[in-house]
Amino acid sequence: MPQTTPSTIERVKGFAWLLMATFVLWLALSSKLNRAELICGGLVCLIISLFGAHMYSKLGFPSLSMKMVLFFLIYIIVLFWEIIKANFDVAYRVVHPKMPIKPGIVVIKTHLKSDIAKMILASSITLTPGTFTLDVIGDKLLIHWINVKAEDIDGATSLISRKFEKYLRIIFT
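User: That's the sequence. What structure does it adopt?
Assistant: Structure tokens below.
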């Protein structure tokens, strides 16, 4: 695959996206939100963005748009909700006297094209207790599932990844 040099607009969008993402991460990890800490965090994020923006286009992140940001925020809410539900499900299986589990490995199929989108899908699946992504091969993901409810590809895909993939498809187009 030939290497293409990103245009100036793509580099500026990459810089803006990286600056915003690192600053939001800084805010999430900060214990105080006083002026000095915000300025220091902003400067650190600016430096990181200046030195890291050239790698942005190589990773396959989409261009920054309001639609993408909105769907990313919805995706985060859906991800946290699924993590909470899965935690209760796994906790129930642990405390139940007969420990009702049916562990197994299933294959699911994704319609995502970019490697970064597939990586985020695989990580999201792994973050939900009871599932673990073992491998990504092309458009298929190999998943260890604590309680296999469907062994066919379509059924497993529907139960495991559809709730994440519908948002990732919009974010990464």
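Residues 8-59 form one domain.
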